[in-house]
Amino acid sequence: MASEKIIARKKAQVKEIVQNFSNAESVVLFEYRSITVGDMTNLRRTLRENNADMKVYKNNLLRRAFNELNYDFEEHLFGPKAVAFGDDAVLPVKKLAEFRKKNENLIIKAGIVEGKYVSADVLNELASLPSREGLITMFASGLISHIRDFAICIDLHKQNLENN
């Protein structure tokens, strides 16, 4: 049987996991088999530069933390897994998707976005969305095109009135 010290340490780790996941806007569970230590270090650095983090926890500790948070990740907690989490709802999965383009061994399994369980398919869709700035630019260009078209219409109408 495990000693009191080991049990206390594991309970503290589960509490840390629960706290990290509760404070995060998104949590992404992914598989990292056959990824070199150097590549994992680069991924971790990239995530930290973007206000996100990555940790590798034992599956049993993750299982207990997810149970405490009332999420069912049981089907995903086999084999080596890591977790990326951050303050932005989309950023961690975008960074993982960028990394996956260079390293096909990273497999996104599932996650939590804004408090809701999401599958790998939904996470991959989120990763393909443009950034916030890109969406604002697209929206602004859509508005500008209508104003431009309206201005052209007014100008054509004015020219038509001058010719008659």
Labels describing this entry:
single chain; Alpha-Beta Plaits; 2 domains
Question: What does this entry look like structurally?
Answer:
- This protein has helices spanning 4-23, 37-49, 59-68, 91-102, 120-128, 132-163; strands at 26-31, 52-55, 81-86, 107-113, 116-119.
- The protein is α+β, with helices and mostly antiparallel strands.
- Helix 1 packs across helix 3 (59-68) and helix 4 crosses helix 5.
- The chain is elongated and about 100 Å long.
- Can you identify the CATH superfamily of the largest domain? Ribosomal protein L10, N-terminal RNA-binding domain
**What is the strand content?**
15-25%
Question: What low-confidence regions span 5 or more consecutive residues with pLDDT below 50?
Answer: none
Give the number of DSSP strands.
5
Structural class estimated from helices and strands? alpha+beta
What's the arrangement of secondary structure elements?
Elements: H1 4-23, E1 26-31, H2 37-49, E2 52-55, H3 59-68, E3 81-86, H4 91-102, E4 107-113, E5 116-119, H5 120-128, H6 132-163
Antiparallel strand pairs: 1-3, 1-4, 2-3, 4-5
Helix pairs in contact: 1-3, 4-5
Short description:
With 164 residues, the chain is of the alpha+beta class.
